[in-house]
Design a protein that fits this description.
heterodimer, A: about 120 residues, mainly beta, six-stranded mixed beta sheet, four-stranded antiparallel beta sheet, 12 strands, about 0% helix, about 55% strand, globular, B: about 120 residues, seven-stranded mixed beta sheet, 11 strands
């Protein structure tokens, strides 16, 4: 079964410092990769996605992620965080699981806390 | 604004009540989902409807009853719930993956349910 691992459940970081949120997945086949963000008391919204092509993907709010096939990773990064980036971040993977069927799996989430 | 609307945003109910959560999407998607998000737990997929047919039911107790009358609407009927059912219930929609579609989910803002 496919799995998505977000290694850090909580990441505190000072304002204007860089941050990296880690995501690893277990799949040897082609996948689609996503990062979602959830602000307090809201639903999840798409931050960025990797489908194919360039391994560096840029998303909204200055975030980017790099797909590394050999390490099966899709880490999320931002060079300088703001207070408003405080939220929970979810990594997700869609993998083809059979003829015409796909499996979507979410990680457990990483809570990013930006400290003034 | 993701194009997926959930009502009500907040609901408080007793264990003997019957209530329903509603989800509506006008994105032309053909799959809809219910997720449960509890504190300190990962996202739990409850139900998936594809083309108005239920394709997944992840061992959800029968006190939760989904209904998908058409591709734009999804309901979650609730009856005789338990306090541990208190959570944020998220609705999402997508195009089915394949044929150029990635299957990414678009989420509503959630319905915060409290069972007394």
């Amino acid at each position: 079964a496919q799995s998505v691992t977000q290694l850090d459940s909580q990441v505190p970081v000072f304002e204007e410092a860089p941050v990296e949120l880690r995501c690893n997945y277990s799949s040897s086949v082609s996948v689609y990769l996503f990062w979602y963000v959830q602000y307090p008391n809201q639903g999840l919204q798409l931050l960025l996605k990797y489908l194919s092509g360039s391994t560096l993907v840029k998303g909204i709010n200055g975030f980017e992620a790099e797909f590394n096939k050999s390490q099966t990773s899709f880490h999320l990064r931002k060079p300088s965080v703001h207070i408003s980036d405080t939220a929970e971040y979810f990594c997700a993977v869609i993998q083809r699981s059979g003829a015409g069927s796909y499996q979507l799996t979410f990680g457990k989430g990483t809570k990013l806390s930006v400290i003034p | 604004e993701t194009g997926v609307t959930q009502t009500p945003r907040h609901l408080v109910m007793g264990m003997t009540n019957k209530k329903s959560l509603k989800c509506e999407q006008h994105l032309g998607h053909n799959a809809m989902y219910w997720y449960k998000q509890s504190a300190k737990k990962p996202l739990e997929l409850m139900f998936v409807y594809s083309l108005e047919e239920r394709v997944e039911n992840n061992s959800v107790p029968s006190r939760f009853s989904p209904e998908c009358p058409n591709s734009s609407h999804l309901f979650l009927h609730l009856h005789t719930l338990q306090p541990e059912d208190s959570a944020l219930y998220l609705c999402a929609s997508s195009r089915n993956p394949g044929q150029g579609n990635t299957g990414e989910l678009f989420f509503g803002e959630g319905s915060r349910l409290t069972v007394l």
